[in-house]
Design goal:
Elements (H helix, E strand, L loop, with lengths): L4 E2 L6 E2 L4 E3 L4 E2 L27 E2 L7 E2 H32 L2 E16 L2 E17 L2 E17 L2 E9 L7 E7 L2 E22 H13 L1
Helix pairs in contact: 1-2
């Protein structure tokens, strides 16, 4: 029996607060709590209101309805599980939204691109100003020289691509590159003068956030 300790010398069970005699089905001393739910509850020496099959008294203070307790515990478990699932889904959705980045630019040159999951970009341009918006704030790039003829396939780009950040960091030349972002939508058009915008999904940032969510 849960919560009971059998005394081999007396044949009684210790229920923490008092002793129970299994021969008579009675406690040796009175309960400190009166149960007024039924007439049998007024008998402070009776075990579980004279219903030991459907009830238990693990502490010796008051009996519990096993069915009600099981239903209550099961319902609490369901509510807790559903709450955890909903919280996880909300956290993942929030991680996805906060992993979206947007940028706008303007400058001089001859250049064109349409940004989708599968896009083609080509041209020469000097982007005199480019602003990127993300949850980390606004970052700025000035006088970025971009020379490229490439194809974007999701987070991969293929083709010659030279980009010079005007001393902010070393210039890059690549034939193949795996980016941290996937382009969702955007376009840049330069015909001597021009402008453009991009909306990207930073999938690496999203993966890092999801890993943290499931580790908590």
């Amino acid at each position: 029996m849960f919560g009971y300790r059998y005394d081999t010398e007396t044949g009684f069970y210790s229920l923490h607060s008092r002793y129970y005699d299994p021969q008579t089905g009675r406690f040796l001393n009175a309960d400190c709590q009166l149960n007024t739910d039924s007439i049998s509850g007024y008998n402070l020496f009776a075990y579980c209101g004279n219903n030991p099959v459907n009830r238990s008294d693990p502490t010796g203070h008051n009996w519990l309805d096993n069915v009600k307790k099981w239903v209550s515990d099961t319902w609490d478990g369901i509510v807790e599980t559903v709450t955890e699932v909903v919280d996880t889904v909300v956290s993942v959705v929030n991680a996805a939204f906060t992993s979206i980045e947007a940028s706008v630019c303007g400058g001089l040159g001859v250049y064109g691109e349409v940004n989708t999951d599968l896009g083609i970009e080509a041209g020469v341009a000097n982007k005199s100003g480019e602003y990127t918006f993300s949850e980390d704030g606004i970052s700025k790039s000035y006088n970025v020289t971009d020379v490229e003829i490439k194809v974007d396939v999701f987070q991969y780009e293929f083709g010659p691509h030279y980009i010079d950040y005007d001393g902010a960091k070393p210039p890059e030349f690549t034939w193949y590159k795996q980016k941290d972002t996937i382009s969702l939508l955007g376009a840049q058009v330069f015909f001597f003068g021009g402008a453009g915008f991009e909306i990207n999904f930073n999938y690496k940032k999203f993966i890092d956030k999801v890993v943290v969510i499931f580790e908590e």
